[in-house]
Write a structure and sequence with these properties.
Blueprint: H1 2-11, E1 33-38, E2 45-54, E3 69-70, E4 81-89, H2 96-113, E5 117-125, H3 133-142, E6 152-153, E7 158-159, H4 161-164, H5 172-178, H6 181-188, E8 192-200, E9 205-213, H7 219-229
Helix pairs in contact: 2-7, 3-5
């Protein structure tokens, strides 16, 4: 219940919406493992996310992300995968150790379950495309998914930034600074994204499908993540 309440606070209350009994819940919650990060002094839950381990890409159409993206290219992926979704931080807590601890817990899950690929949706706050132009332009230039795995369009409202921003010259400093922290972390470890963003007016976000092959994480970064839980 604490995770659902925090999710409502992060995703809805911050946009002025009245509290909802039961918090932010959906049909994927019962099948996922929920990770909560607590403040050791107050006991307050300051971050959370959920994980769903899949035996291979044959099950990927059951995932949360598959509601928004055609993931046919990943169905043939033969190794264990895990979807991370509903990642959020409490709006009143900004300690960088929260994010670090969250990734350390994720690293432990990946090792225990022998996960070969992480995936999910990374969200930009707000649906104003102009506000995210530099970030999307940088994604188009340097971080698109391998062609064989690239998600196809499925949602009715999308921005194909790889096509629409082709030839754009993004300001890389602005692009990286304005990217969501979760997406920025994926990319620094070798992650990649879809060539289009889904426009979600209900959540007031743009999101991109994001994938990360565990084997591509730089060894020094992998050791640092394991040291958090080791």
């Amino acid at each position: 219940m604490a995770a659902l309440t925090l999710r409502w606070t992060a995703f809805h209350a911050a946009r002025g919406r009245a509290a909802k009994p039961g918090g932010d819940a959906d049909s994927y919650d019962p099948v996922c493992r929920h990770v909560l990060i607590e403040d050791s002094r107050s006991g307050a839950v300051v971050a959370c996310y959920r994980l769903w381990a899949l035996p291979s890409g044959q099950s990927i159409d059951q995932s949360y992300s598959a509601q928004f993206y055609n993931l046919a290219g990943l169905r043939g992926y033969e190794h264990p995968m895990a979807e991370m979704s509903r990642f959020c931080l409490h709006p009143d807590h900004h300690d960088p150790d929260i994010f670090r601890t969250a990734w350390g817990a994720l690293a432990r899950f990946v090792d225990l379950r022998k996960i070969a690929m992480l995936f999910g949706c990374s969200s930009f706050l707000g649906t104003d495309i102009a506000a995210h132009r530099d970030s999307l332009g940088l994604l188009a230039q340097k971080h698109l998914a391998p062609e064989r795995w690239r998600p196809l369009e499925k949602s009715p409202l999308v921005l194909n930034f790889a096509r629409d921003l082709a030839g754009a010259m993004p300001d890389q400093r602005i692009a990286r600074k304005s990217m969501p922290p979760l997406l920025r972390t994926y990319l620094t470890m070798g992650g990649w994204v879809s060539d289009h963003a889904v426009i979600d007016h209900d959540m007031d976000t743009l999101h991109v499908f994001t994938g990360l092959e565990i084997a591509r994480i730089p060894p020094a970064r992998a050791r640092a993540l394991r040291a958090i839980y080791g």
